[in-house]
Write a structure and sequence with these properties.
heterodimer; A: globular; B: Alpha-Beta Plaits; six-stranded mixed β-sheet; four-stranded antiparallel β-sheet; 10 helices
Amino acid sequence: MYDPTVARLTYRALLGRRRAAILFLLPALLLLIAVAVRVLNGADDQVAADLLGGFALATMVPLIGVIAGTGAIGPEIDDGSIVYLLSKPVKRTTIITTKLIVAVAVTMVFSAVPTLIAGFILNGNGQQVAVAYTVATLVASIAYSALFLLLGTVSRHAVVIGLVYALVWEALFGSLISGAKTLSVQQWALALAHKVTGNGLVTSEVGLTTAVTLLVAVTVVATWFAGQKLRKLTLAGEE
Amino acid sequence: MSTLHIDHVSRWFGNVVAVNDITMSIGPGVTGLLGPNGAGKSTLINMMGGFLDPSTGSVTLDGQPVWRNESVYRSVGVVPEREAMYDFLTGREFVVANAELQGLGAAEAQRALATVEMEYAQDRKISTYSKGMRQRVKMASALVHEPSVLLLDEPFNGMDPRQRMQLMDLLRRMGADGRTVLFSSHILEEVEQLASHIEVIVAGRHAASGDFRKIRRLMTDRPHRYLVRSSDDRALAAALIADPSTAGIEVDAVDGGLRIQAVDFGRFTELLPRVARERGIRLLTVSPSDESLESVFSYLVAA
């Protein structure tokens, strides 16, 4: 299920690329805004919840998920270097699950950790807001990584499609149109965040059971499908 | 000792047939897969390496299917044509990673790097390597587990003559050790120097098979076509057709000149200038009209 060598190659590829700058930039921006808000506005639970919900969960996590999820496999398939993994006695499902674990870990480190810190900066975790959104980002990290990893195995334009999904669907429709909200990783994660705070500060459009079911289903199905895609991946001649 | 069996294998992409009903066995020793660009060599090698499924037919290694069977890679090493490898790693890190994926370690990686004489640059990033150095590190990554089968797609592309010689020596040694080595190339001389056995692929078909003497003979004995322009085309034509080395001559009224088909290459090249001199005819143009590799190969298909 997990191969340490594949993991090492994956995270070095992820963090060694120029795109990785976004991984550092977005959390830095979040922390900067948190400090600014706290200094200028003082501690306010509602403002904290709005910032963590509107920026950290709705924008930062999907963006980092796109970079980590597609970046964990897409470039290798594009340039053909994946052949060095495929030509080894390593199960292709192991390659996929390993890459998923790395993508999840990277997304969690670069989104959940800064979310927690930002939450404490904003209102000192008042009404459990920081912890609630940290839980939400952790959960969302898993689902986004699985989705975008699949996207990376399916399309050469994974990053663009991923960005459109992350920004248009999750950030815009997911916040505005109620129908889209049921099919939004963000809302599923919010359902868990709501459970943690247990008050009206954090709300979700979907119930906890539905949210958990959908999160698990999306993660499992996306990972399974990505494994199938990799098993059938052909390296066509370039003649 | 391992043998790859390719049994009635075809592969098409949409409407394009890349490989057309090929059957061959690749056994121990060095085999060259020869054919012009676009003949289907890479497609065939990708199927042998388990990276592509045949549309029909089967590829097996000692009875085991290679498609969707990761375990064959314990005894197969692959050197792909594409340049891309993990450029952000050093050569050593790359080979060590390949060794680990085979369940081996740093010691085996070091030995493979020594085999390809890349120890001197092993701690440099792959992104700084020349094409020849990349090729050697790719070789090392394919050799770490001492595979009994080695597949190389156009391994000599972009190598300088010295690197080429080194790689040829290495492959020759591996073949002599009883390993099954298969490499593709579109250059006859390359294949001739290295391979004890040659398989020729043209337009997706298996055109010829044999040792290099047989292939060479097939290639030089084929009819040659020439376009000749002279001060007196008809007189020249009359003199040439009298000799058995010439099978047919056509007078090209539109472009001017003669289209000559010679069946005995050596004799014809000696005959033409002699006849012209004896008859006082000036030769203005003598050009082989079908010397492209493509036509050489297509002759083989017909043969």
